[in-house]
Design goal:
The chain has about 50 residues and is mainly alpha-helical. The protein contains two helices and no strands. Helix 1 runs antiparallel to helix 2. The radius of gyration is 12 Å and the shape is elongated.
Length: about 50
């Protein structure tokens, strides 16, 4: 089984995490729309799915 490169997924995870934290600080009403992206990119970066 070949090892996949997960660098892009880590980058997207950190960008979406920063977006989530800034949405919390700025009291963005739709911050729950960002949470699935944080979870998805974390799982893909950890190579779970």
């Amino acid at each position: 089984m070949a090892k996949k490169s997960t660098g892009l997924y880590w980058l997207l995870f950190f960008i979406s995490t920063i977006a989530l934290v800034s949405a919390i600080v700025l009291r963005f009403e739709y911050l729950t729309l960002i949470i699935p992206f944080v979870c998805l990119y974390f799982v893909k970066a950890m190579d779970i799915i």
